[in-house]
């Protein structure tokens, strides 16, 4: 994975974001997407909110996804393997870039048809622990006409990223605003943050 990790780091240094295809193999995408949908059908997801603590609220005019938090102690092998790989990446970042990362948190995200997440930063106003946002897509056979793009706002331009299976996107949480455009199919991902 060293070559993949280096590719991501190069993107972060040059542009503040990186898009890496085939971070997950097709069989890993299948396993994780099956687990996500099973947990959703079993009622283990909840409507996502915005804000933190007493400011936490749910607002479908801003954010419409449903989430389920992952645990490093999950009984599901595919989930543990994914988080283990993320842990390897975090340690590699610390070793090569002296980032001082200490932990991570990840959840499944399911956007129903038509759901979106308006333009925002992934950092709370009173908490700067989130350093890098990490999204990995679990959508098999995704086509441009299906929508659901991640749009990253750079100075003077935008970058649009299709949520294709196995694709990893990493960007600086407190620096790059972004949004999720409405999808015409349910949109599946694992989303999280590397934290200091």
Question: Could you walk me through the main structural features you see in this protein, from its secondary elements to its overall organization?
Answer:
- The mean pLDDT is about 95.
- The protein starts with a helix and ends with a strand.
- The protein has a single domain, classed as Jelly Rolls (Sandwich).
- About 25% of the residues lie in helices and about 30% in strands.
- It has about 200 residues and is α+β, with helices and mostly antiparallel strands.
- A seven-stranded antiparallel sheet has the order 1-9-6-11-4-3-2, covered by helices on one side.
Provide the CATH superfamily. Answer: q2cbj1_9rhob like domain
Average pLDDT for all residues: 94
What about the largest sheet? 7 strands, antiparallel
User: Which structural class should the secondary elements be placed in?
Assistant: alpha+beta
CATH architecture: Sandwich
Q: Encode the helix/strand succession as letters.
A: HEHEEHEEEEEEEE
Strand order of the largest sheet: 1-9-6-11-4-3-2
CATH class: Mainly Beta
Number of domains: 1
Based on Cα principal axes, name the global outline.
globular
How many DSSP-defined strands?
11
Low-confidence stretches: none
Q: What is the CATH T-level topology?
A: Jelly Rolls
